[in-house]
Amino acid sequence: MNLIVAVDKNWAIGYQNKLLISIPEDMRFFREETMNKVVIMGRNTLETFPGGRPLKNRTNIIITSKPDFAVKDAIVVHSIEEAMNMVRDYKSEDVYVIGGAGIYNQMLDYCDAAHVTKIDYAYQADTYFPNLDERQDWIIEAESEERTYYNIEYAFCKYVRKK
Description:
Layout: E1 2-7, E2 12-15, E3 18-19, H1 24-34, E4 38-42, H2 43-47, E5 59-63, E6 75-77, H3 80-86, E7 95-97, H4 101-107, E8 113-119, E9 127-128, E10 138-143, E11 147-149, E12 152-161
Parallel strand pairs: 1-7, 1-8, 4-5, 4-7, 5-6
Antiparallel strand pairs: 2-3, 2-9, 8-12, 10-12, 11-12
């Protein structure tokens, strides 16, 4: 299973339930990676999407503790275990965890690959992703050249879990 995330230099991912920055190339990368795949997210992440609607051309699995929560064109589950049960018939490489922080933290140990857009800037933030550079069980398998969006430098990194 994969996860996909954009982090700043302190591994921050959001502030007040919003992304820190929207970089067009990163958004395009996210779309291309997840298109026609399965995405797993928390309810708060879903609510940040336009109209609070699931992503098109993907199987959306929403994890929420709200027992009566329902959303059109998505599968709603109430636990990590239930989400894992829903994806058992899919190829592991076709499943992406897309946030938020609580879901990332709970599902990181189920993932084999992490697609991390590393942004070389420290934003004001209140939500963080675990720093994979400090974890013994993750290594960088691939890294893009540094890119620039206005004055912000960033790179695409693929981390993999050590076998």
